[in-house]
Design goal:
Length: 423
C-alpha cells in the first residue's frame, strides 16, 4: 500500500514544542481531511451507502473496514506529536481518516466536525452501583466481569439514572473545537454520533450482574433479570427523553454503515425528532440463549426503544441464524447484520430484498493467513450469493494485522473487485 500521507505516519516523531504549534499541526491535518471530503469520489461513496440502505441498486456494495483495536498498531503512540489531550485526540481522529483514505475503502468523510451534546447524569455512577472489571496488568489482555449485584438484596441499590442537558458545557466544548479548527473545518453540535446503540441494554446488564450469573438467572431467577432489564430500559428511555427535551436533534444519517437518505424526507431542521435518526442494537451477550429467552429478556425491551427511531440496524458479532423471525419484526428495521457466525445462505433466503444485509467478515480469516487465496475465494463466493440483494461488505473488530502490513488494503481491493463483479 503506497501512502499519500506517509509524512504524518512516521514513528518516533519529535513532539511539537508548544500548544500553538500543536494546534497549527492539527489544522493542517484537518485541511487534509476536508480535501478528502471534497474529492469527486466522495459523492459516489456516499451515494453507494444511500443506495443500499434505501434498497436501490448501487454500482457495487459499499466496502468498509473498522480497525478498532488494530489502530494501536497502525497509529502507535510514538507516531503522535501532540501533548495537549484534546489536540492529541483530534490528531488521532484525523490521522485515522487519512489512513482510511490510503486503505481506499468506502469511508464517508465529511467536511465538518461533530461535537456531542453533554448531559449530566445522576447518580454519577449511572446505575447506583459501581461497575467493576478485573483484568490482567498487561495492556490488551483478558478481563472478566466482577458482579456488582452479588445477591438479590443488592438489586435494591439500583437506580434509574436522570439525564439533564448541560448547554453551558456543550457550548464550551464546541467553542474549544471551533477555536482550534477555525477557518478550516466548521463544528456541528449533535446529540449523538458514531455507533449509537443505547438499545443494547444487555451490555449494561452483563456489566452489572456478570454474564454467567445473568444466564443462570434466566433459568433460576428470571424475575431478577426482568428487574434489572427494566431499570436499564428505563434509563435508556430517560436519556432519549432528555435528548428530545433539549432540542437540537440532527439526523445521524451521515456516517459509515448508516449513511442514507433522510428517514423522513421533506422534514425541515426545526422539526427533526428521533424519527429522523438511526439507532443500532445487538444481543451479543445473549448469543447463547434460546430464541424464546432472547425475546423475553431482551428484544421485547429493545423494540420499545427502537420504535422511537426512524431507522434501525440490528446485530453485531452474534449468531442470529435461529433468531431471524423476531429480529425481522423490529419496527423500522432497515439493516440486518449477518455476522461471520450467522448462516449467510439462510439469512439471504429469509431477508430477500426487504432489508439491507450487513455482511460482516471474520477478522481472523482476513488478517491471519499468509496466503490470501482462501480469502479471495470466500469474498467472491459470498458476493456471488448476495448478487441481486442489497448489502454492505464490512470488516470490523480487528485487533492485529499479524505482521501483514498491507492486509487491510488487500482486503479492500478484493472486496471491491468481487462486489463489482457480482453487482
Amino acid at each position: 500500500m503506497k501512502s499519500r500521507y506517509q509524512k504524518y505516519f512516521q514513528v518516533d516523531y519529535a513532539r511539537l514544542n508548544s500548544r500553538a504549534d500543536e494546534a497549527k499541526y492539527v489544522r493542517e491535518l484537518a485541511a487534509e481531511v476536508v480535501s478528502i471530503a471534497r474529492e469527486p469520489r466522495m459523492t459516489a461513496i456516499k451515494q453507494r451507502w444511500c443506495d443500499v440502505n434505501g434498497l436501490h441498486r448501487p454500482d457495487h456494495s459499499p466496502v468498509w473496514c473498522n480497525p478498532v483495536g488494530l489502530w494501536k498498531e497502525l497509529l502507535p503512540d510514538s507516531s503522535l506529536r501532540c501533548n495537549d489531550p484534546l489536540l492529541r485526540d483530534l490528531e488521532l481522529t484525523f490521522k485515522k481518516l487519512l489512513f482510511k483514505r490510503d486503505i481506499d475503502d468506502d469511508t464517508p468523510v465529511n467536511d465538518y466536525f461533530k461535537s456531542t451534546m453533554i448531559f449530566d447524569v445522576i447518580p454519577e455512577n449511572v446505575w447506583g452501583v459501581d461497575i467493576v472489571k478485573e483484568s490482567l496488568e498487561t495492556e490488551g489482555s483478558a478481563w472478566q466481569y466482577k458482579s456488582a449485584l452479588q445477591t438479590p438484596a443488592d438489586f435494591d441499590r439500583l437506580r434509574v439514572p436522570e439525564y439533564r442537558y448541560n448547554p453551558r458545557k456543550t457550548a464550551a466544548a464546541a467553542a474549544q473545537l471551533e477555536e482550534i479548527l477555525s477557518g478550516v473545518m466548521p463544528v456541528r453540535i449533535v446529540p449523538f454520533q458514531g455507533y449509537f446503540s443505547i438499545a443494547t441494554i444487555c451490555s449494561a446488564a452483563a456489566n452489572l450482574r456478570g454474564m454467567e450469573q445473568m444466564m443462570m438467572d434466566m433459568i433460576l431467577e428470571p424475575e431478577l433479570v426482568h428487574r434489572l432489564m427494566n431499570v436499564i430500559y428505563a434509563g435508556a428511555m430517560r436519556f432519549l427523553d432528555a435528548v428530545e427535551s433539549a432540542g437540537g436533534i440532527v439526523p445521524n444519517n451521515d456516517e459509515a454503515m448508516f449513511q442514507s437518505d433522510p428517514p423522513r424526507p421533506g422534514v425541515n431542521g426545526g422539526e427533526y425528532s428521533l424519527k429522523d435518526c438511526w439507532i443500532a442494537g445487538n444481543s451479543q451477550e445473549l448469543d447463547q440463549v434460546s430464541p424464546a429467552m432472547f425475546e423475553e429478556f431482551l428484544l421485547d425491551y429493545q423494540k420499545k426503544i427502537f420504535a422511537r427511531f426512524g431507522a434501525v440496524s440490528y446485530g453485531c458479532c452474534e449468531n442470529l441464524t435461529n433468531k431471524m423471525e423476531p429480529v425481522l419484526a423490529i419496527p423500522n428495521l432497515k439493516i440486518m447484520v449477518c455476522s461471520a457466525w450467522t448462516n449467510l445462505d439462510k439469512l439471504i433466503a429469509r431477508v430477500g430484498t426487504k432489508h439491507c444485509i450487513m455482511w460482516r467478515h471474520k477478522a481472523s480469516d482476513a488478517v491471519c493467513p499468509h496466503d490470501i487465496s482462501a480469502l479471495k475465494q470466500y469474498v467472491n463466493e459470498g458476493a456471488r450469493k448476495l448478487q441481486g440483494h442489497y448489502y454492505q461488505t464490512i470488516l470490523r473488530e480487528l485487533q492485529t494485522q499479524m505482521g501483514h502490513d498491507n492486509r487491510l488494503y488487500e482486503w479492500t481491493q478484493i472486496s471491491k473487485e468481487a462486489t463489482t463483479k457480482y453487482a
